[in-house]
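Example record for the data management plan.
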Amino acid sequence: MMTDTIEFFKRYARQSRSPWDDVSRVVMMFQPDSKQGIYLHLGGSGINGISLSKELQSRLPKALQSQYIGASDIDVVLHLFETDISEYCIDNVSTKAFKRIFLVDQRGFFSDASKTVWKKSYQQFLAS
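Corresponding structural encoding:
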């Protein structure tokens, strides 16, 4: 039976299929109907990168259209999927679980200041 829920944080029991040396992943967005999602990959020393399901990749700039995107371009993804990610994290993740990973609650993480930084990174990416 397929489930329509997913663990926000999951420590891996076996090696991830990502190109990184991951130890865990965080669900940033998950659509139960389509099983599409955005996942933050964590290694022993922090964020390795982010992965997106196939259908979501087409919303990225051509140069980034890949399943796996390195940590240096995560804010581009956060900008493009800001509404989807914030709605998912606010509606489906407890404040306690969110703060355990990001040290601030959802309101702090998705603040106007954060959104401004993500937008600037996106604009710089497009200009480069």
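Summary line stored alongside the record: The first helix runs from residue 54 to 57.
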